[in-house]
Amino acid sequence: MKLTIGHLYPDLLNLYGDRGNIQCLMRRCQWRGIEAETIAFELGDKIDFSRLDIVLLGGGSDREQMLVCEKLKEIQPDFKKYVEDGGVVIAICGGYQLLGKYYKTDQGTITGLDLVDLYTEQGEGRLISNIVLKSDLFDMPVVGFENHGGRTCINNCKPLGKVLYGSGNDGKTGYEGVVYKNVIGTFRYCHVNIASILCLAGRKACASCIQDSFCAFCVYRRNCDCNTSGTAPPFIKSCRNGIFSRIQFKTIFNLSRAGCPPTCVEEISRSFASHIFR
After folding, report:
1. Which DSSP string corresponds to 167-229?
2. What is the distance, to the nearest Å, from the Cα of residue 150 to the centroid of all Cα atoms in its chain?
3. In angstroms, what CA-CA distances link 190 with 79, 145, 225?
4. What b/e readout covers 152-162, taking b as 16+ CB neighbours within 10 angstroms?
5. pLDDT tens by residue, 10-55
6. Percent helix, strand, coil in the chain (nearest 5)?
């Protein structure tokens, strides 16, 4: 079996190293004996979505999103058909915003792909933090890093997860990301946590469950008999727990410094640990 990953516009939508996401997906396929290839599409390229098993739409600045806006209008019908047919998509930060109807900024409104019923509007200040999610899709919490000025409303769509630590879609609802069919959109900088080559071992682990899920989605869609539950190297879980430990310590320290009663701090600590160390 061979999976083909399409990376859309990496020359523009690659703000925080989305090529590392591709490398991580490729490696996790290799661990399971699945052959994989990546095709990078630039603005002038024609995209045949029927050839693709996974599509990655990465993050970019507002200016870069403006530049790809016109091209998105051209590919929207084919992209929409791919999504409705169960195509697998991961959209991160700017790519997540582009899944929706529009992204309203101070410089103007960016028309989105309208693949998912959501919209984004620029808010006051940026939401910058480590973030931990509890998601029904995965058997372990997912950690990442968020840095976005947009506030996304997902209407009646299903969120990717409940925020245990961080801000999420808008800093108010307590949820982050979106799930529609086999599409996952997220503000979490997976590319920081999965992809950074400089800290590959420590960071890649954090969203490993998402990577494995994409492999499983594709194998199921292709109706192939292939292993998607192989064992990753043991450092995966230890790295994830190490990152969680740092976030847990920071949370407890801030609560104590803010004058939270010791009994409350202890209860929160136990609750936090029950979500993480399993």
Report:
1. -TTTSSSSEE-EEETTEEEESS-HHHHTT-GGGHHHHHGGGHHHHHHHHHHHHHHTT------
2. 15
3. 22, 7, 28
4. bebeebebbbb
5. 888 877 667 777 887 888 788 778 888 999 999 889 999 999 998 9
6. 40, 25, 35
Q: CA quadruple 211, 216, 218, 224: dihedral positive or negative?
A: positive
Instruction: Report the half-sphere exposure of 94 (CA within 13 A, side-chain side).
Output: 26
Q: Which helix (H) or strand (E) holds 252?
A: helix 235-257
Residue pair 67/8 in contact (Cβ under 8 Å)? The answer is no
pTM of the predicted protein model = 0.77
Tokens of 241: 């727990």
Single out the residue of 140, 175, 141, 142 nearest to residue 156, CA to CA: 175
pLDDT in tens, 195-208: 322 222 222 333 34
273 contacts 132 by C-beta, under 8 angstroms: no
Instruction: Name which of 151, 58, 65 is nearest 110 in CA terms.
Output: 65
Q: Which residue has the tokens 């960016």?
A: 110
Q: What are 122's two structure tokens?
A: 């620029």
DSSP count for the chain of H helices, then E strands: 8, 12
